[in-house]
Amino acid sequence: MEIWQIIALAIIQGLTEFLPISSSAHLILPSALLGWQDQGLAFDVAVHVGSLCAVLSYFRQDVWRMTNAWFRDTAKRHTTEDSRLAWAVILGTIPAGLAGILLNDVVADQLRSGWVIAATTIGFGLLLWWSDATGTRQRSLAAVTLKDALIIGLAQALALIPGTSRSGITITAALFLGLRREDAARFSFWLSIPLITAAGALKTLELIEQGGATDWHAIAWGTLLSFISALLCIHLFLRFLERIGLMPYVIYRLVLGALLVLVLW
Asked: Where do the H-state alpha helices sit in 19-176?
């Protein structure tokens, strides 16, 4: 890839991994509009590593606190708020993990089309608006139960469908359950950590099996730029979420979906 393609794709991945606007919708636009070739498995691994490092870096204190509490409290058969939130993240990850194992081939064969992505980009964008408009936004993370985590986890499994947006559907579910916007987003970001880790590990194993030459220049730039863009994205999204709400992202999804329809027509 040319350096400007590397920059564009890494930034797109870093931003869309965490914004509720669907990364898959954005990653098909360059090839559809500009005729770009697929960036390759090695580059996919690189940008996933960059995104993972960003979310771990930003939430390092939360991750350390919950992990430490989970090991300590589980050994003592005792539950605190931090260990309960750790269990909530674990429970919320299971449905998407199982869905990925059982349905990945079905999705790859039947649902990875531009029309599906256009429809889900618009449809789940409207659902995001509905959850933001009707949710009470009164509950905090301290009030999240394991039942809430399971419901959000089941919603996250829908993100296997291209165009849904993992962050978008988990924030939507959390808002329907009455969580505040920032807390809904924070829990969504926590849920991304095990999934991005698993996806990156699977892609790495696949890359090792394929073998062949690797463009380490593209790998380095992809990792660095996806890390920077994802870190900025998380920070700015959480900082301005309560102030601007989710309507800008809903409008953006509707416009993006319409653009995809025009491109595919």
From this structure: 23-34, 41-58, 60-76, 81-110, 114-134, 146-157, 166-176
